[in-house]
Amino acid sequence: MSSRTVIRNGLVITASDEIHADILIEDGRIAALAASGTSAAEAWTAERTIDATGKYVIPGGVDAHTHMELPFGGTFASDTFETGTRAAAWGGTTTIVDFAVQSVGHTLREGLDAWHAKAEGNCAIDYGFHMIVSDVHEETLKEMDLLVEEGVTSFKQFMAYPGVFYSDDGQILRAMQRSADNGGLIMMHAENGIAIDVLVEQALARGETDPRYHGEVRKSLLEAEATHRAIKLAQVAGAPLYVVHVSAMEAVAELARARDEGLSVFGETCPQYLFLSTDNLAEPDFEGSKYVCSTPLRPREHQAKLWQGLRTNDLQVVSTDHCPFCFVGQKELGRGDFSKIPNGLPGVENRMDLLHQAVVDGHISRRRWIEIACANPARMFGMYPKKGTIAPGADADIVIYDPNAEQVMSVDTHHMNVDYSAYEGKRVTGRVETVLSRGELVITEREYTGHAGHGTYTPRSTCQYLN
What is the pLDDT of residues 352-376, one digit of tens each? Predict the structure, then answer.
C-alpha cells in the first residue's frame, strides 16, 4: 500500500532556496514540490495533509557528532540510543552519526559490531557511524579499507587523552595515508594531550582542583598547535582533514590559513562554544562541572571568531558532540580533582533551536542555518541529497518549524536523559512543531508519536566535497 502526505502553505527553506511551496511525500520519500496555490499543487490528493501556514518547512537536522552510551572516565554517557534519538527528534534532528569505538588491543570490527548491537532496534531516527581508531597497526589499516567499502567512511583520531584514545604523530600519519588511498575522511580531536597532562599535573599539585581549571590547563594555544600539526600531517599524507569541535580563535585561524592555501581541510564547531564560555566553568559550588567538555569552553571573546568562521565558510558544520553525564553521581566523580570530571555536555535536542536563535540575533542567515545544520554535514559524510535537503527523491525527513514560538530551555522540559540543561533559563525564539522521519510522524504538534526501531542504519558514501 502506498502512503501519501501533503504539506501545504509553508515557507520551504533549504541551503540554497526559500520558496512558498507544497510538498508531496510518497512512500517515505519526497515525490514533488510545487508552488503553493498552483494547479499542480492543488491537484495532489493524500491520506494526510499538514497545514504549515506561517511556519518554516525545513530538512531534518543532521547531527554528525554524537556519543550515545559512550564509556568514558569510569562511567557511561547517560543517553542511550533510545533516549538520545528521541530527544534529537524533539529538537528537529532526524539523522545522527555516532562514534563506534575501537579499544586498544581490539579490532575495528569488534568496536563497530558492539555499536550496531547498541543501536539496532532502539533508534527513533536514522543513524550512521564513524569509527574511533585508537590502535593503529597494519591490521587496523587493512580494516579501514573494508569499513569504507561498507559505508563507514570516516575515522576519528585523538591527539588528546594519552592512555585512552591517543594516537602519536606516526600513527596519525599512517591512518591519513590510508585514508588518502581509500577515500575515507580523518576526523581529528586536535589538542596536545601530552602537554595538557603536564599542565594538569602541575595544577593539581598547586591545589587547583575546581572545574574552572579544566579550561585553564587545556589552553587554546595547545588546540591551535595540534590543529596546525594535524593540517601539516594531512598535507604530507595528501589526505583531507576534518577538525572536530573547534573552540578557539587561534584554531580557526589555522583552518582559515590552510583553506586559503587550497587544502582540503574542514572544521566543525558546536553550540556550546557559540553560546557558553569560561564564565560557566567558573560557576560556584561545583556547578562548573556541568560545563566540562573537551575541547573546553573558551573566554567569551572567542565566540565572535567562531561566528565569523561560520559566515566565511572556514567552519562548515555545527554538530553537538552530545555526550551527557548527570551532575549527580557522574560529574561529581571529579569533586576535588577536575581531571576526574567526565568530559561532555548534553545538547542534541538544543542545536536547531540555538542556531535559529543565531538567525534571529543576526549572526547567520536562514539558509546558512540549514546549510551548517543539515546540508553540509550530509555532504561532508556522504548522505546528500538523501539527507539534508528537501528535493524530489530525498528521504522525507522534514521539520515543521514555528519561527515565532518562544520557549525557555530547561531540564524540566527537555527530553535528554540527563539531570541538568547546559542552557537552563535561556529564552529562544523558534520551536519544532512537527517532525517526519522518512514520511513517518515522529513528533506531531509537540507530541511524541515515534517509536524505538523506526530509525534505520544509514551506510554512507565518501565525503562529497572531494568528489
Answer: 999 999 999 999 999 999 999 999 9
- C-alpha dist (Å) from residue 140 to 94, 143, 242: 31, 5, 20
- pLDDT tens track for 247-282: 999 999 999 999 999 999 999 999 999 999 999 999
Cell numbers placing 109:
570490527
Q: At what angle do helices 249-260 and 220-237 cross, to 10 degrees?
A: 20
Cis peptide before 385 (omega within 30 of 0): yes
In order, the DSSP letters of 363-429 are SS-HHHHHIIIIIHHHHHTT-TTTSSS-STTSB--EEEEEEEEEEE--TTT--SSSS--TTTT-EEE
Listed in sequence order, the DSSP H helices in 242-393 are: 249-260, 271-275, 278-281, 302-312, 351-360, 366-370, 376-380
User: What size, in residues, is the chain?
Assistant: 467
CA distance 370 to 463: 19
- Phi first, then psi, for residue 141 (nearest 5°) are -60, -40
The whole-angstrom separation of Cα 436 and Cα 438 is: 6
Q: Residue 169 has which C-alpha cell?
A: 604523530
Q: Which residues, listed in sequence order, are joined to residue 366 by a DSSP beta bridge?
A: none
Cell of 106: 581490539
pTM for this model (two decimals): 0.98
Q: What whole-number distance in Å separates Cα of residue 327 and Cα of residue 346?
A: 11
Asked if residues 414 and 87 have their Cβ atoms less than 8 Å apart, the reply is yes
φ, ψ for residue 33, nearest 5 deg: -125, 145
